[in-house]
Fold this sequence. Notes:
The chain is built from eleven helices and twelve strands. By secondary structure, the protein is an alpha+beta fold. The chain has two domains: 2-222 and 375-384, Ribosomal Protein S5, domain 2, CATH 3.30.230; 226-370, Alpha-Beta Plaits. The strands form two sheets. Strands 1, 2, 3, 4, 5, 6, 7 and 12 form an eight-stranded mixed sheet that branches. Strands 9-10-8-11 form a four-stranded antiparallel sheet, sandwiched between helices. Helix 7 (243-256) packs across helix 8 (258-280). The structure holds adenosine-5'-triphosphate, (R)-mevalonate and magnesium ion.
Amino acid sequence: MEVRARAPGKIILSGEHAVVHGSTAVAAAIDLYTYVTLGFPTPSDNDDTLILHLKDMDLEFCWPVGRIEEVLPDLGSHATSSPSSCSLETIKAIASLVEEQNIPEAKIGLASGVSTFLWLYTSIHGYKPAKAVVTSELPLGSGLGSSAAFCVALSAALLALSDSVTLDFRHQGWQMFEDSELELLNKWAFEGEKIIHGKPSGIDNTVSTYGNMIKFRSGELTRIKTNMPLKMLITNTKVGRNTKALVAGVSERTIRHPKAMDCVFSAVDSISSEFASIIQSPVTDDLAITEKEEKLEELMEMNQGLLQCMGVSHASIETVLRSTLKYKLSSKLTGAGGGGCVLTLLPNLLSGTVVDKVIAELESCGFECLIAGIGGGGMEISFSGSS
Ligand SMILES: Nc1ncnc2c1ncn2[C@@H]1O[C@H](COP(=O)(O)OP(=O)(O)OP(=O)(O)O)[C@@H](O)[C@H]1O
Ligand SMILES: C[C@@](O)(CCO)CC(=O)[O-]
Ligand SMILES: [Mg+2]
């Protein structure tokens, strides 16, 4: 039997980075997914390897399970369903297993994802042979939560083939976990994110697990529902960056200027709370929607200004801001910044011609634009008979 899990990426509408320091943030799932297929070989396959195939990257990694046991003698012998953190010592041992695979230098950023795979797999299934195949519709390292979608889809596939969740194997098509299982999955995914991010707030794995739209503060999620149409243009500047380094940079700035940064985080907290209450409050007509959109645009501009204060904007992001402002449209970076993706609010009554013009201008700068569906479902799995 084989399981396929999919987990969505996300956009952060308000509050990235500040959320790591206890402020409120608002995020929504998008309809772009990471897929993980997992299967165990049958005894007649006589296979004793653990394989990770990153299909889009055309990379396959393979470890004899005996080698994993040799390097990680404790981790897999206590294979468990209760999530715990990966110690520094274990991270180092895993890094040596990853190094043996000689990842090409140009793709070395994948090393943390591969380490996360080895850790999650061995923690949950021990030294059992298996094959995992990963594909993703998300651009990696661009602010759309690829790391979280990877951790969520992977943890889901691992748990689905463990004893800790009860599922209907005969069910055709996608199915969801129960609430307590989602909670367990989210905890594992968070531990995985820690290996990739260093100090994640947990917002990305949480929105990928539960889907829809969430308000998130200090590890607590509130599911929210928008009462107005919300259309965002996503512009990928294609400037590569890494969330771990950007999050660490903000923490260092906070150590240098604690009082000032505290004010910045508290302003972001107010912006996110206001953003959430505007989208949740009922609307009666187009005029009311326009009024709300104007407020949201102002909040996005304020949030972007504060992200600049945190040091996570980038020349490419500023170019997107300037280009969209020419059309009186407001934008902010989304995710960790430093390049990556930018959100632009597309008002309800904005003409298609203007949207086309903005996109053409942004694409002439070498950026990539997309309009993703916002607020869709979270993680789902499906079973198929044989591998
Ligand atoms: N499909 C995947 N396969 C393997 N590794 C992945 C995959 N998706 C993400 N990763 C890992 O996550 C890293 C990117 O994570 P990072 O947090 O820096 O960016 P992001 O999650 O796309 O953006 P943000 O955190 O700002 O939303 C990759 O370099 C890789 O190590
Ligand atoms: C930058 C950050 O706030 C969001 C990344 O999508 C990091 C986090 O919350 O873990
Ligand atoms: Mg990430």
